[in-house]
């Protein structure tokens, strides 16, 4: 079992991704002192934010005994390394990002971009949250989601089972669901 001192020494990264979109509301939400303090209080040591096409620039920090180290970047040819080294992922609601994170068995908070029209992503995120595979939030509820999250309550997403996804797509398109 890790002692409190060991957990401070080990790097526990929260990776935030907006994909290829513009989602400044998510970047601003994770850049608040309240969110950063809550993540630190939960034992995370680093915050890596992929800001995509956004114009909001988060505050960098090297971290110390009382705060997260914060870094950001715009795009990368692959986020696979950032994803695989993350202890927690906070993501936009893109299906690719969601399923790649779940495939790697990473705890996930999906933040819905309310500015998108015909937001089918919200339906997917809410359905997967209802099935307890992830947590679903909006930019304005991210702090509360982090403060109340219990990672032990999450269930692994069944690998290779396309039926639940097909059912969600059929439901969204208005086809009969068995």
Automatic annotation (TrEMBL):
Cellular component GO terms held in the UniProt record: UDP-N-acetylglucosamine transferase complex
One Pfam family named in its UniProt record: Glyco_tran_28_C
GO terms of biological process kind: dolichol-linked oligosaccharide biosynthetic process
GO molecular function terms listed in the Swiss-Prot or TrEMBL record: hexosyltransferase activity
Source superkingdom: Eukaryota
Residues annotated as domain Glycosyl transferase family 28 C-terminal: 13-162
InterPro entries xrefs: Glyco_trans_28_C, UDP-GlcNAc_transferase
UniProt-recorded name of the protein: Glycosyl transferase family 28 C-terminal domain-containing protein
Gene behind the chain: LOC110736966
């Amino acid at each position: 079992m890790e002692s409190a001192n060991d957990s401070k020494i080990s790097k526990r990264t929260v990776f935030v991704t907006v994909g290829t979109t513009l989602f400044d509301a998510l970047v601003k939400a994770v850049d608040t002192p309240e969110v950063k303090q809550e993540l630190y209080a939960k034992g995370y040591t680093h915050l890596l934010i992929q800001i995509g096409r956004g114009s909001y620039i988060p505050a960098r920090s090297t971290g110390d005994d009382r705060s997260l180290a914060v870094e950001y970047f715009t795009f990368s040819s692959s986020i696979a390394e950032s994803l695989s080294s993350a202890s927690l992922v906070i993501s936009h609601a893109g299906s690719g990002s969601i399923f790649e994170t779940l495939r790697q068995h990473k705890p996930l908070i999906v933040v819905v971009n309310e500015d998108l029209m015909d937001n089918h992503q919200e339906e997917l995120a809410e359905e997967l949250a209802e099935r307890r595979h992830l947590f679903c939030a909006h930019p304005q509820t991210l702090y509360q989601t982090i403060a109340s999250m219990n990672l032990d309550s999450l269930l692994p997403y069944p690998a290779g089972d396309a039926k639940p996804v097909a059912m969600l797509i059929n439901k969204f398109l208005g086809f009969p669901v068995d």
